[in-house]
Amino acid sequence: MLRRPVRNWASIWKRPVRLINCQKKTGMARQLHARRLEGVDKNIWVEFTQLTADYKAVNVGQGFPDFSPPSFIQEAFCSAITGGASMHQYTRGFGHPALVKILAKFFGRIVGRDIDPMEDFQITVGAYQALFCTFQALIDEGDEVIIVEPFFDCYQPMVKMAGGTPLLLVCQKSTGPALSSADWVLSPEELASNLNPRTKAIVINTPNNPLGKVYQRDELQMIADFCIKHDIICISDEVYEWLTYDGAQHIKIASLPGMWERTVTIGSAGKSFSATGWKVGWAMGPGNIIKHLKTIHQNSVYHCATAAQREYDTFGTEDSYFKQLPAQLHKKRLRLAECLRSVGLEPVMPQGGYFMITDISSLQVDLNDPSTKDEPYDFRIVKWLIKEKGLATIPVSGFYSPEHRGNVQNYIRFCFVKEDSTLKAAEDIIRQWSVKK
Ligand code: PMP
Ligand code: GLN
Asked: Which of ligand 1's atoms lies nearest the C-alpha of 280?
């Protein structure tokens, strides 16, 4: 029986239909939307977050912790709020001085060079805005940008909105059953085949969302050689940089010889400190690149919340949260994998990040929902799971371009940065369902 969606005013209010009514009322004949919006209006987070809320499903889909950030971060935030008038007013638009100084010192040790706190950072509203500023600042009409697929879904629309053309470089699964995210590999030949005179940048994401792949040194070196040889900018999204497992090591491509000069590294305090709602992120790179991101930032957002930029006083101490969180997640990751295996689903063990994907081709499900009949199989399965079983996951083909989606419909993504009680609730649903099958 179909579970009834739970409706509330907030959810109804969010619906795009209001825009349509508004358009009708104004009676305007001219086209309202800018052409750059065409083909980028659909968004998996908007769609699946709403569906998850409507059906009150157990959420192991969207990537956010359902537990609180560590207490030292909460205390730092509270002391910022009560720390005097200046914490409630504008601060330096390119980043609160105390924060950029701490970040420069911290990352300077990792990349092995002096980083200029004032020149080499732009603090942003989450990693999302860092990515947006980067594409807007560096990509011109007609430029081509290599995006390694599967990719965090916003890269492609952001490149398009900047007037660029995405070139998709598929990270191929090696033959045989995939047991680890390391089974997805980049081929140097395919990388080289994407090159032409308009190729300006490449976007990589390590640890990768959704695969959990952590790029090894030789893979990063191959990309670095390519960038240096052909004068290409590297945009490296490293929001999950602290989360690696089983000895996998996160390496910053900006730390390889010759790469600092051409790399924009994207980071997220939300992901680093389990506070995704605070929306603090950054772009880090050489001042001559970052200054262009600053131009975009100063003319659009100008400034990010001052108090939210105060939480970094304890950035990187010995008992750092950056060590505690992966230790905690390692256990949750094993727990989820064991549950999936117990019902005959083979998980792809992630080397890093928040997520685990699993092949669902063995599932025998009678998909009789006509409203999803034209959608990829994984979208249909995920919607069925939400509506019929009250379990929210994410379809992996959503991390592929519409052109390639048809080839990758057999995986769904689980998020394990969740309370044990949430994981237990998900396990109960999965096991009960497998008994009934
Ligand atoms: N990049 C990747 C790979 C992500 O998964 C996300 C989602 N957290 C972002 C960027 C955006 O991060 P933020 O929430 O800091 O804007
Ligand atoms: N990055 C998060 C994920 O992959 C969610 C981003 C969002 O909700 N927009 O789940």
From this structure: 15
